[in-house]
Design brief:
The protein is mainly alpha-helical. It is built from eight helices and eleven strands. The protein has a three-stranded antiparallel β-sheet, with no helix packed on it. The chain has a two-stranded antiparallel ribbon with strand order 1-2. A two-stranded antiparallel sheet has the order 3-4. α2 runs antiparallel to α5 and α3 runs antiparallel to α4.
C-alpha cells in the first residue's frame, strides 16, 4: 500500500504526467480510493471479534454438575436443560446442544471456536491471514468493504496507468526510475485484481445466500438435520442482515449489521424447528419458503411471521 502510494502519487502523477488537469483529477480520485481502502483495511484488522455474552456461559453449579457426570447421555441432557433458558436452535452433528469445552459456553447459533484466536466468535466466517484477525459478526461488513475498495483501488490504478505503460514500452517517454514504478504498478494492480475478484465473488455469493464460509462447507444442523438454507431469508433481507436497513451507510465502514450476533432470523421450515418448541402450536405454512421465517431478535421468545 505504501509503495503503491509513492509510485502513483510521486512517480506517475508528479514526475511523469504533464497535463495539469489530468494530474489533479487523478490525484483527487486516487486519494478517495486510497482512504477508503486503508480505512476498511484498518477496521478489518483492529475490530475485535465479538464473543458470546455472559448468559451463554455455564454457571458454577452447572459446570460442576456437567464435569462430574461421566455418562454422555446425562451430559447431553444437562446441556439441553441449560439451553432451555437460551434461544439456541442449531445443534451439533450428533444432535446435542453445541458446547465449547475450552470456553465453557453454550454456543449461540452460528458461533464457532477459533483455535488461532483461542475464543468463540459470534457468526464466525473464517480466520483471515490477510488481516490477521477472525472475520465474524463484528467485522464481516468491514471485510466485504475492504475487498470492494481493494478491487476499486486496483481497477483505478490499472486503468489510469495503462496509457503510460504503453508509452514507456513504446519508447515515447524517457527511460528513468519512474518507468520501473509505472510498469510494476500495472502488473501488481492486475495481479491483485484477479485474485481479489475470486474471493470477492465467493463472498458475494455467501451474502446472497446468508451463509458463512464455515456454513458453506458444513451446513448448520437443526433438530431434523442439516439445512443449508436455514438462515436464508431472500436476497434483500440477506443483504440487510450484513449491511443494515439504511442504504446510505452500506458503503461506509461503520457497524450497521442487524442484531447482536446471538440471535438470527430463520426460515420457517419444519427441519429448522427447535425441539424445545415441540410443544408449541404447529403453524401451517401460509406462503413460500422465502416469505415464511422465524424472526428472533435478542429475545428468547419466538415470533412466527407469515406473509400472505
Amino acid at each position: 500500500m505504501l509503495w503503491s502510494y509513492y509510485a502513483y502519487v510521486f512517480e506517475l502523477c508528479l514526475f511523469t504526467i504533464t497535463n495539469g488537469f489530468e494530474k489533479v483529477a487523478y490525484l483527487a480520485v486516487f486519494h478517495v480510493c486510497f482512504v477508503m481502502f486503508a480505512w476498511t483495511y484498518w477496521k478489518s484488522i483492529f475490530t475485535p471479534p465479538s464473543q458470546p455474552s455472559k448468559q451463554f456461559h455455564m454457571s458454577y453449579s452447572d459446570k460442576e454438575r456437567y464435569e462430574n457426570e461421566e455418562r454422555s447421555e446425562v451430559q447431553k441432557q444437562i446441556l439441553l436443560d441449560i439451553a432451555k433458558r437460551l434461544p439456541v436452535y442449531t445443534r451439533a452433528a450428533s444432535g446435542a446442544v453445541r458446547f465449547c469445552d475450552r470456553c465453557q459456553v453454550i454456543k449461540p447459533d452460528r458461533c464457532h471456536h477459533c483455535s488461532l484466536c483461542e475464543m468463540c466468535v459470534l457468526k464466525m466466517d473464517h480466520h483471515c491471514p490477510w488481516v490477521n484477525n477472525c472475520i465474524g459478526f463484528s467485522n464481516y461488513k468491514f471485510f466485504l468493504l475492504f475487498l470492494t475498495y481493494a478491487i476499486v483501488y486496483c481497477v483505478f490504478i490499472a486503468s489510469t496507468v495503462l496509457q503510460y505503460f504503453i508509452k514507456f514500452w513504446a519508447g515515447e517517454l524517457p527511460n528513468g526510475h519512474a518507468k520501473f514504478h509505472v510498469l510494476f504498478l500495472l502488473f501488481v494492480a492486475l495481479m491483485f485484481f484477479v485474485s481479489l475478484m475470486f474471493l470477492f465473488g465467493y463472498h458475494c455469493w455467501l451474502v446472497a445466500k446468508n451463509r458463512s464460509t464455515l456454513e458453506a462447507f458444513q451446513y448448520p444442523t437443526f433438530h431434523n438435520g442439516p439445512d443449508k438454507n436455514g438462515f436464508n431469508l431472500g436476497f434483500s433481507k440477506n443483504l440487510q442482515q450484513v449491511f443494515g436497513e439504511d442504504r446510505k451507510y452500506w458503503f461506509i465502514p461503520t457497524f450497521t449489521s442487524l442484531g447482536d450476533g446471538h440471535f438470527f432470523p430463520m426460515r420457517f421450515l419444519s427441519e429448522s424447528r427447535n425441539p424445545l418448541l415441540a410443544s408449541e402450536e404447529q403453524c401451517e405454512d401460509g406462503g413460500s419458503d422465502e416469505e415464511n421465517y422465524i424472526l428472533r431478535r435478542g429475545d428468547p421468545s419466538v415470533t412466527i411471521e407469515l406473509d400472505a
